[in-house]
């Protein structure tokens, strides 16, 4: 049986990983870290700038290095970027080091919650909805493959989602 201590939140952009992670951290009196903010602190630049200068591949490398460090910082609540599950090494690191919660979110809701978002480079496109659909088609099976529990954020407020996670944890 998996040793439960860390909680890792995975799921698409707009699922509420940061809001729910922060609330969970308060409830459990555990440190909360958002991997994107950690990458920004480490590099001193924001995510769009990393994408601009190093491309998505460069960002993914930094994200994997950051996640590899953070999963060992026990105990921690970690909100990961929506694309973190793309790399097998991240999926393995998350699965091996904590309780993984998939925050499920419909594309409609993702669109609502990321509307006019200039901080997410992958959504700087003519048709963000189509992009979000494409991303979900690839990523949803990966989210499912690594999740210990799934919470549908469309059904719950952030506080209720926290309660659902605590029931399963
Ligand atoms: C990304 C999601 C973002 C951020 C980057 C790439 C993705 O994080 O890591 O813009 O590939 O889905 P959030 O899921 O926290 O928005």
From TrEMBL:
Domain of life: Bacteria
Assigned keywords, A-Z: Amino-acid biosynthesis, Aromatic amino acid biosynthesis, ATP-binding, Coiled coil, Cytoplasm, Kinase, Magnesium, Metal-binding, Nucleotide-binding, Transferase
Binding of ATP, residues: 14-19, 120
Cellular compartment(s): Cytoplasm
Cell inner membrane among keywords: no
Function: Catalyzes the specific phosphorylation of the 3-hydroxyl group of shikimic acid using ATP as a cosubstrate.
Protein name according to UniProt: Shikimate kinase
Taxonomic path: Bacteria, Pseudomonadati, Pseudomonadota, Gammaproteobacteria, Methylococcales
Gene: aroK
